[in-house]
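Hey, weird one. I pasted the bis(5'-nucleosyl)-tetraphosphatase (symmetrical) sequence into the form twice and got a warning about non-standard characters only the second time. First submission, copied straight from the form history:
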Amino acid sequence: DVTEQSIIDRVKEALSPARFMHTQGVVDTAANLAGRYGADVRWTRLGAWVHDIAREWPYQQLEQYAEQIEIPSGFALIPNLLHGPIAASIFRDWFGPDHADVENAIRYHTTGRPGMSKMEMILCLADAIEPSRKYPGVERIRELAERDLGEALAESLDSTIRYLLDRHEPIFPLTVMARNELWERYK
Ligand code: DGI
Ligand code: FE
Ligand code: FE
Ligand code: FE
C-alpha cells in the first residue's frame, strides 16, 4: 500500500521549496473543500499532493513522457498544460487503474473541463486559491469558496481567462466550455 508520507517524500524531491509550499497549500485547501462539499477527503488529499509533480520538468522531458501516454486533444499545443495529464499518469502508476476520478482531477486541474465532478472542481479551485496565491480578486474567490463551489470556480475560470487574454495567450477550449457551463448556472 502506498502511504501518504511516501508520496510526500517523492513530491518534495520533485519540487522547489516554493512549489512544495504551494502543493502543501493545495492539499490543505482541497481537504477543507472536500470536507465542506462532501468529496472523499483522503483521495482528494492524495490527488492534491501529486497534481504538480511534473510541473518543474524541462520541456524535453514533458514532451518525451507525453508521447507515451494519451493526452486529451489540445493539451500538447500549450506546453504549460502537459504537467496535468502526466501527473495523472504517474498517479495511476502509483495507485493502480481504479481511481479515474482522482486521475481526472489531476489531469484537468489547470484547465477545468465541462461536466467536472466534485473532486475535479475542488482540485481546480484549490490550486487557484491556496494561501500563497496572490492575484487581483483572489480574496473574493476564497469567500465564494466557503458558500458555493460552482460559483467560486466560475469566478476563478473568469479570472484565468482574463489573465490569459491580457497576456495574449491562447485559451484552452475546454476552459471556455467549463466557464460557459458554469455561467449558464450562475449568470
Ligand atoms: O501548476 P500551477 O502553477 O500551480 O498552476 P496551473 O496548473 O493552474 O497553471 C499552470 C500555468 O498554465 C499557468 O502559468 C497558467 C497557464 N495556463 C492555464 N490555463 C491556460 C494556461 N496557459 C494557456 N496558454 N492557456 C490556458 O488555457
Ligand atoms: Fe499545475
Ligand atoms: Fe490552476
Ligand atoms: Fe498547482
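That's the output from the first submission. The warning seems to come from a hidden character in my clipboard, not from the data itself. The mean pLDDT is 96.
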